[in-house]
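If your schedule permits, I should be very grateful for your opinion on a structural question. The matter concerns a single protein, recorded as an amino acid sequence and a row of backbone structure tokens. Could you please explain, in whatever detail you think fit, how the structure tokens follow from the sequence? I set the record out below, with my sincere thanks for your time.

——
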Amino acid sequence: MNNFLCSWSGGKDSCFAYYKALQLGYKPTVLLNVMNEFGDRSRSHGITKPILKAQAEALSLPIHFFNSTWKAYEENYIKHLNVLAEDYELSHAVFGDIDIESHRDWEEKVSKSAGLEAILPLWQGNRKQLVLDMIDAGLEAIIVSCNQDLGPDFLGSTIDTSIIETFESMGVDACGENGEYHTLVVNAPFFKNRIHVEMVKKSVSSNYNFAELELVEG
């Protein structure tokens, strides 16, 4: 059995990890996204449920949500992972982390708690090359949040080779793996349709700028 759950942020790394897992012969079965404690947007990227559901529909997959504070995150994650592992007869969990060892340790820990093997298809890849490979593979991602080093003007921008060069000239990691920016994938060759969104406003929370997005009928 090689059914996998994908830890799904809606961004480029989780989507590219999903794609790589497909290439490795694993079978996508369900997506998992963690919302904030209010359930109005995703915990990590600030994306709303309708947009995440639209991505899942484009992949022809179910998506499972749960709300959580950061404090209860691990406990809730393990609980829901166990339920999904049984309901979907899962054997693996796919994550999009690249080279932060503490993240991998956590993912292997929670996966093991649910009897699953953690798969990290992007692990130890060169950060810049991974972004370039993602672009070459046809994934289209836009910036939905970024820190103050980048500033709000980058919100809504598409990740392409020119913006990667701009980031590097600013001393910003090309992949945003240090939390400089987060993305939303709006199209990919394995989506059955494009996700149409529009930015209605920009907001700031702590040290982060967020694009307030609305789903648009295509």
Remarks:
- The chain has two domains: 3-119, 127-215.
- The two ends are 37 Å apart (CA to CA).
- The beta strands are 3-7, 27-35, 63-67, 92-94, 117-119, 140-147, 181-187, 197-205, 208-215.
